[in-house]
Write a structure and sequence with these properties.
The chain is α/β, with parallel strands linked by helices. It has two domains: 207 residues, 3-Layer(aba) Sandwich (Rossmann fold), CATH 3.40.50; 116 residues, 3-Layer(aba) Sandwich (Rossmann fold), CATH 3.40.50.40. It contains nine helices and 20 strands. An eight-stranded mixed beta sheet has the order 4-1-5-7-10-11-14-15, sandwiched between helices. It has a four-stranded parallel beta sheet with strand order 17-18-19-20, with helices on both faces. The chain has a two-stranded antiparallel sheet with strand order 2-3. Strand 17, helix 5 and strand 18 form a beta-alpha-beta unit.
Length: 343
């Protein structure tokens, strides 16, 4: 007999935790202590559920490094007493948070599943119940006494994705997220279908969870566009305390070949700025040197972002800067997959 899984729900805010006050029509925060009463279906799950909530639930547009640290601290302090974690989060910045937590939680060997909804939990046509129930079920999955999922995932509309591979693609549809360069880990139909070859597993020799709480936000993103001007690029590169620039390039990592453009980037790199080449396409990978328009970028030592999402690139850069990694090692480590975030 397998013991019942003990799951901790962490409510940070977002639509999923809202109920409509039918007298005023306004949305108000749901009392998660009354969760089982409001969603009796949870009683059918073979697990025990506890919940903890941010003191003041936030709209996910206000998510920041301090809140990421709070989520990581809650997981750290409850890690030994729980078999899995479900983080209820607004959908707008969920991919950023799932990516950030994947880097902050090193040697994670239990599921941390982010989920949310497009409609409030009390809404007639809500997607919140299914997302919540299935996320808890996934967090409870065990085989031979070990959790099936041992990483940070994001569950939405019948699919569990690797968290640091996701991006929000739609503000209206229930299918709000996609993972363009990595297949789903689990699909929910009549049964839960687990795609075992795609799962991450912690190295048995590194079983102790290490929580990294220092993140450094000296990071910027610049999306290239036809006609981008020299003065704009100069202004971005001169940003005070900037340590990492994520450059969203065209296609497979291509950029203008103008001398002023390459010279500005090269000088910035020589002065210690790390510039990461990430494609602005929703899917596919940077292939440095594949075209003439990316050969120069490779020559001046831009960091190859491969198929990493912008969300994961930002949070990985913040994590590496926070870890105090030496400037000489930054490029090598960034180009290495740490939590399955790139091929």
């Amino acid at each position: 007999m397998q013991k019942k899984a003990n799951i901790l729900l962490i409510y940070t805010g977002g639509t999923i935790g809202m109920v409509k006050d039918y007298e005023t029509g306004a949305l108000k925060a749901f009392d998660f202590d009354e969760l089982l009463g409001n969603i009796p279906e949870l009683n059918q799950l073979d697990c025990s559920i506890e919940s903890v909530s941010f003191k003041t639930p936030i709209d996910s547009s206000n998510m920041n490094l301090g809140y990421w640290e709070e989520i990581a601290t809650i997981i750290e302090s409850n890690y030994d007493h729980h078999d899995g974690f479900v983080v209820l989060h607004g959908s707008d910045t969920m991919s950023y948070s799932a990516s950030a937590l994947s880097f902050m939680l090193e040697n994670l060997s239990k599921p941390v599943i982010f989920t949310g909804s497009q409609l409030p939990i009390g809404d007639l046509r809500t997607d919140a119940k299914e997302n919540l129930i299935t996320s808890i079920q996934i967090a409870s999955l065990q085989e031979n006494g070990k959790p099936v999922i041992q990483e940070v995932g994001l569950y939405f509309e019948y699919k569990l994705y690797r968290g640091n591979r996701t991006t929000k693609i739609n503000a209206e549809h229930f299918e709000a997220f996609d993972s363009p360069d990595h297949p789903p880990l689990i699909e929910s139909g009549v049964n839960l279908k687990v795609y075992y070859p795609y799962l991450l597993h912690v190295d048995k020799n590194k079983s102790k969870l290490i929580v990294h709480k220092k993140m450094n936000n000296s990071v910027a993103v610049l999306k290239l566009f036809p006609g981008i001007g020299e003065s704009l690029l100069k202004a971005v590169l001169k940003t005070a305390n900037l340590k990492v620039l994520i450059l969203e390039t065209y296609g497979a990592g291509n950029a203008p070949t103008s001398k002023w453009f390459i010279d500005l980037l090269e000088n910035a790199i020589k002065n210690g700025l790390h510039i990461i080449n990430v494609t602005q396409c929703s899917g596919g990978s940077v292939i440095m040197g594949h075209y003439e328009t990316s050969k120069k970028l490779s020559q001046i030592q831009l960091i190859d972002g491969k198929d990493i999402t912008t969300e994961a690139a930002i949070t990985k850069a913040m994590y590496l800067l926070g870890s105090g990694i030496s400037s000489s090692l930054f490029k090598t480590v960034f180009e290495t997959s740490l939590r399955g975030e790139m091929h």
